[in-house]
Amino acid sequence: MIRCISSRTSSGKGITPPNLSDVILLRPTTITGDGWTNSVVADQADEPDPSTTYALRTAEFALFSAGPDQQLNPFIRADPGGFNADNIVVTGR
């Protein structure tokens, strides 16, 4: 199953709209290179981690798949057991 998540929201005056890096489920399990940044929202792991990518932070939409095992933990980005490692996220503008 593939889900489409959009960052387009109507916001009131003075309110910063959320971006897709605030959706912990969409964050990559590993971040390499210089493309990393921090999100406003940290995950709910034992050691909260706000790491995300610039591409996710600036995307207008994301397609998500839970991968071959069709399982996910929406509250953590990176986990030692690799539970979310097979998740697939594709972003676009």
Overview of the molecule:
- The chain is mainly β and 93 residues long.
- It has a domain at 14-20 and 35-92.
- The chain is built from 1 helix and 5 strands, in the order E-E-E-H-E-E.
- The strands form 2 sheets. The protein has a 3-stranded antiparallel sheet, with no helix packed on it. A two-stranded antiparallel ribbon has the order 2-3.
- The two termini are 22 Å apart.
- The relative contact order is 0.27.
Instruction: List how many beta strands DSSP finds.
Output: 5
Order of helices and strands: EEEHEE
Strands in their spatial order, largest beta sheet:
1-4-5
- Report how far the terminal alpha carbons are from each other: 22 Å
Describe the largest sheet: 3 strands, antiparallel
Which helices and strands, and how do they pair?
Layout: E1 2-6, E2 36-38, E3 51-53, H1 54-58, E4 61-65, E5 88-92
Antiparallel strand pairs: 1-4, 2-3, 4-5
